[in-house]
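Suppose a colleague, Dr. K., hands you the sequence of a protein chain of 179 amino acids and asks what its three-dimensional shape might be. Before reaching for any lab equipment, you can write down a predicted structure in token form. Begin with the sequence itself:
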Amino acid sequence: MKGYFLKMRGGAKSPPGIRFGEIVWSWVGSAIGIGLCGYLSSNFFEAMDLTLLIGSFGASAVLIYGAPKSPFAQPRNVIGGHMLSGVIGVVCFRGCGETIWLAAALAASMAVAVMLVTKTVHPPGGATALIAVIGGEKIHQLGFLYSLIPVGLGAFILVIVGLLVNNVSRNRRYPEYWF
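The predicted structure, expressed as tokens, is then:
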């Protein structure tokens, strides 16, 4: 039992600080990626009762622009992880929506499992699945369209901005791999 609790102390050294230039590029990419999704959402999609902004995109921005070398930030993971998780969330809501806590638990856990099996692990995908369950009536009315708009299109936009912004700096490269 003591060994179990001792593991909670940690043991690794803290990561190094981030250079100012990296912080600036991360900020620029995030501002453009989320800003573009927000602009398109408010000027085009909301008139059709759609959106291009969901909370999990904020976490995707951290990975794509703040940690572009991370396996979780690669295009396959971002787009595949989000879209698969979106479908799973809709299925869980439709199957168990009257018991929200169960639908939420199944959506998040099944999204994790499917992303692991398909090698598309993108941690914000767990939130994407959860949003399909707890996102409210507008999200629920989208049904499986949710996995395309906002999820697929928004993730695609964030990746495109990542390609453009992350490769401007001599010190950055994105993606590390496609598949």
